[in-house]
Specification:
CATH architecture of the largest domain: 3-Layer(aba) Sandwich
Shape: globular
CATH topology of the largest domain: Aminopeptidase
Distance between the termini: 64 Å
Number of strands: 12
Number of domains: 4
Strand order of the largest sheet: 4-5-6-7-8-9-10-12-11
Oligomer: single chain
Strand content: 5-15%
Mean pLDDT: 95
Structural class: alpha+beta
């Protein structure tokens, strides 16, 4: 009877996420009170309660809902600990969909940059998990750099007691000690990361009742947006109309606030077993915020010069809804083309995702001035069963995106006809996988239709490597200086006068431009503009580079041809 009663209360609370109107807020608070007195005897029921609490904290009916949900979330770790003491299967807290709940434990092989950040946040709390670890070759290759005479054991002996070596050298401060040793290596930052990442060391840490847990990782806000009417659905969103508006005002944050924002996104991603290049390595000096209404604040930032991609510009970000993190964002582009990744966290799917996505695109287009938006196949479902199950392709299609491949456009049209004739028809998983095999595009006014349909940065990179293999015996150390010297002569530039990061940008562009036979015939102004673009790639803010690229017609045409 108690189980049925608990299930009934949870179902009623879950239904409240999409019910609004007079008395609904009071109903939610009453259900909160009833559930707070319940004894949760199983993990799935407690997880259901947790997810409903988080959703209603982000999309509240009123002030009392906010206050009561926060009160319950702050004490939620106690409920998890009670279940653990009762012998519950704690592995049920591990799946990506529900990980990061206060009171649970997390285990993951973190990158060096994330580990370095985490051990400073949780000193003495991160431990190496040795059970099942089998990357001994990597340990033998790397650890002798800071463990004297380890070669005697690691190079030739069987059954090396790696755990004992580490415990002895570090005095049992394993994770922190390793981080310090890698930080002290006399190699560039990127190489330190690569060396550590090769170890793939599994680590464990307990969330207890920490604010970085998913349960408590919300921020106080000055003004909460309360929902008294139904949430905005996808069918109510016109992406064309949203993008036709003026972009939201983007406010650049002081460095200290930027660092706090990046700490937040690292917490957000860590507890969801996710890591994104730009969320790990973001530049705090480039963080901007846009308050777009309905309690939604969008944060975006770029990369520091030393961590930027060779050619494409990069922007990462995330969204707070009434102070609650609900998604992450990634945009990578060239000239007016921008490939956008947008992931709404499981808890908040169904929470105005289409409208918030439109606001994120408005911010990204305002920041980068891009006019051609594309979505890569993984987001649609290529090798991504989660996207297949959610019908991600139709989310984008109904917002106005079109497949870039003619065969997929025809298949889309056939599926749309079936839907018109039969309202109950649902596209099969097999067909959704076919539809997810290519990019989809949304072009703003002023964009050249279809120009980027066949472009891939990979095509461009492979052409450079093909040339290196054919003319330079596959030696990167030969092709790079030769290409750089050739471009320097053509542009009249002294590479030695450039800063190290500018030299790296110059070299990358030289590799690409060595494939452009018409470059020598470009006019003086075109070459001068090209040099500005190369220098801007490593400037303080990469967005100037993005805008300059869009203005150089001949460079854009050359890049398009090489990458298509």
């Amino acid at each position: 009877m108690a189980t049925r009663s608990l299930d009934r209360l949870l179902t009623q609370l879950e239904q409240c996420r999409y019910r609004f109107g007079t008395g609904e807020g009071t109903r939610v608070v009453r259900l909160f009170s009833q559930l707070s007195r319940q004894r949760f005897a199983d993990v799935p029921s407690l997880i259901r309660f947790h997810e409903a609490l988080l959703f209603l904290r982000a999309f509240p009916h009123g002030q009392r809902v906010v206050r009561k949900s926060e009160e319950l979330l702050r004490s939620f770790a106690q409920r998890v600990e009670q279940l653990q003491q009762a012998g519950a299967d704690m592995a049920q807290f591990d799946p990506l969909e529900v990980s990061g709940i206060a009171g649970s434990c997390m285990e993951d092989a973190l990158s060096f940059d994330v580990l370095r950040w985490l051990v400073r946040r949780l000193p003495g709390k991160v431990e190496v998990v040795w059970k099942g670890y089998d990357e001994e070759r990597a340990l033998a290759a790397i650890w002798p750099r800071f463990m004297p005479l380890l070669e005697e054991d690691g190079y030739v002996e069987a059954n090396v007691p790696w755990r004992r070596w580490l415990a002895t050298a570090s005095r049992n401060k394993n994770a922190e000690w390793l981080v310090r040793r890698f930080e002290e290596l006399p190699v560039p930052e990127t190489e330190k990361s690569q060396l550590y990442d090769a170890l793939r060391l599994p680590l464990r840490w307990k969330l207890n009742n920490l604010p970085l847990s998913r349960t408590r990782n919300w921020k106080p806000v000055r003004r909460v947006f309360y929902h008294h009417r139904p949430l905005i659905t996808r069918s109510e969103v016109s992406l064309a109309q949203e993008l036709a508006q003026q972009p939201p005002e983007l406010t650049r944050l002081p460095r200290a606030q930027g660092e706090a924002v990046l700490d937040t996104i690292r917490e957000v991603m860590l507890v969801r077993y996710r890591e994104l290049y730009g969320t790990t390595l973001g530049d705090p000096d480039t963080v901007v915020r846009a308050d777009v209404g309905r309690g939604v604040s969008i944060y975006l930032w770029g990369l520091p010069p030393a961590r930027r991609l060779p050619l494409r510009f990069y922007v990462a970000g995330f969204t707070l809804k009434n102070g609650v993190p609900i998604n992450y964002i990634e945009a990578i582009g060239l000239c007016e083309w921008m490939e956008v990744g947008f992931n709404t966290f499981y808890t908040f799917r169904g929470g105005e995702a289409a409208w918030i996505y439109a606001q994120a695109l408005r911010c990204l287009c305002g920041l980068t001035t891009a006019k051609c938006i594309s979505v890569y196949p993984y987001q649609l479902g290529e090798r991504n069963e989660e996207a297949i199950d959610s019908g991600a392709f139709w989310f984008y299609r109904k917002l106005g995106f079109r497949p870039g491949r003619a065969d997929l456009l025809r298949l889309t049209a056939r599926e749309e006809q079936k839907i018109v004739f039969d309202a109950k028809y649902r596209t099969s998983s097999r067909t959704l996988r076919r539809l997810a095999a290519g990019h989809v595009f949304f072009e703003l006014p002023g964009s050249q239709a279809g120009a980027w349909d066949k472009f891939s940065i990979r095509n461009l990179g492979l052409k450079i490597n093909r040339r290196m293999a054919a003319k330079f015996q596959g030696e990167s150390a030969r092709i790079r200086p030769i290409a750089s010297a050739w471009l320097a002569r053509l542009l009249g530039e002294k590479v030695s006068s450039l800063r190290p990061q500018q030299q790296a940008s110059f070299e990358n562009f030289a590799l690409v431009l060595s494939l452009v036979p018409s470059l020598s015939s470009w006019g003086r102004e075109e070459k001068r503009a090209l040099l500005k673009i190369i220098r801007a790639k490593s400037a303080a803010n990469e967005m100037r580079y993005a805008r300059l690229l869009q203005k150089h017609r001949r460079l854009r045409e050359a890049l398009l041809e090489l990458g298509s």
